[in-house]
Write a structure and sequence with these properties.
This protein is mostly helical and 295 residues long. It has a single domain, classed as MetI-like fold, CATH 1.10.3720. It has eleven helices and no strands. Helix 5 packs across helix 7 and helix 7 packs across helix 9. The longest helix has 36 residues. It is globular.
């Protein structure tokens, strides 16, 4: 019988340290979860006891009935072909807003994520093979821009942009594009920082310049992951369009807010149906595109 292989002492210490970190993290997570639920149950204003009141469930059932057209005078909106056509135009504007937003975000991130990576600006992948003041300043400027743009929610961006742009899909697209630019830029820069740096010295030894190293050694490695992140953020954007529409940014969101204000419940159901169709369609399309990328 062959003797069992034993890990070196340094490796065993590393595994034990890693296991201890996981155990401590799990204990802290459970403690925070219990504390949070305790706060909810103890706080009288949390609204948690209302979940067990018959009045709450009766109101919820009444609201769902109104969405289904119960008690509404005339034909519900979701049973009218004309209303489907009218709201279909709004759905197409919402789709256009999401495409425009992800194009803004993707183009901006694609042009700036390389200098935002530390190993490109001041590491082994730097075009100048060493840190230069210009690249260092550009790195920190882009990182700060990513933090600012993704730190401000899309709705706040839309409220600010709508002040100097006319209501429509453009301010909504710009707001969504700004927020997702920061997210895509950060994620893509971190992918670059995790890439294998070994091809760069080999390419330089063959006479490649700094830009050629980035074009042929870095971008091909990170491009599939970048496209995956881009498609994922498009799925998120199509879900967020209805939120920015609340501030007159156009699309389904604006009509949804008006229908809520005037208690047109069957119109709300119709808009939600279009919204779900868009979400499902974009999810299926992105899943197919990601499959093509993996192949």
């Amino acid at each position: 019988m062959k003797p069992m292989y034993r890990l070196p002492s340094a490796a065993r210490q590393l595994v034990q340290s890693f296991t201890g970190t996981i155990r401590l993290s799990l204990i802290l997570f459970l403690a925070l979860a219990l504390a949070s639920w305790g706060f909810i149950l103890v706080d009288a204003n949390s609204g948690f006891p209302d979940l067990f009141m018959a009045e709450t469930w009766s109101s919820a059932a009444g609201f769902l009935g109104k969405l289904a057209g119960v008690g509404e005078e005339g034909t519900p909106a979701f049973l009218q072909g004309e209303r489907w056509m009218e709201t279909g135009i709004l759905a197409s504007k919402t789709l256009a807003m999401s495409i425009l937003a992800i194009v803004f975000a993707g183009t901006g991130a694609l042009l700036t994520f390389l200098p935002a990576a530390r190993n490109v600006a001041m590491g082994e992948l730097s075009p100048h093979r060493r840190a230069t003041p210009g690249w260092v300043l550009l790195h920190y400027f882009l990182r700060g821009t990513f933090i600012l743009t993704r730190g401000v929610p899309e709705l706040v961006w839309a409220m600010l942009i709508i002040i100097f742009l006319s209501p429509g899909i453009l301010p909504g697209a710009v707001a969504l594009g700004l927020h997702n630019y920061g997210i895509l830029g950060k994620l893509s820069a971190e992918v670059v920082e995790d890439t294998d740096p070994r091809p760069a010295p080999s390419q330089r030894a063959c006479g490649a310049g700094g830009l050629q190293v980035m074009g042929y050694g870095i971008i091909p490695q990170v491009l599939p992951q970048f496209i995956t992140y881009l498609l994922y953020r498009w799925e998120v954007v199509i879900r967020t369009t209805i939120v920015v529409g609340f501030v007159s940014a156009g699309g389904l969101g604006m009509d949804f807010r008006l229908s809520m204000s005037f208690f047109h419940y069957s119109d709300i159901a119709l808009l939600l149906a279009w919204y779900l169709l868009l979400v499902i369609g974009i999810d299926m399309l992105c899943a197919g595109l990601r499959k093509l990328i993996r192949e």
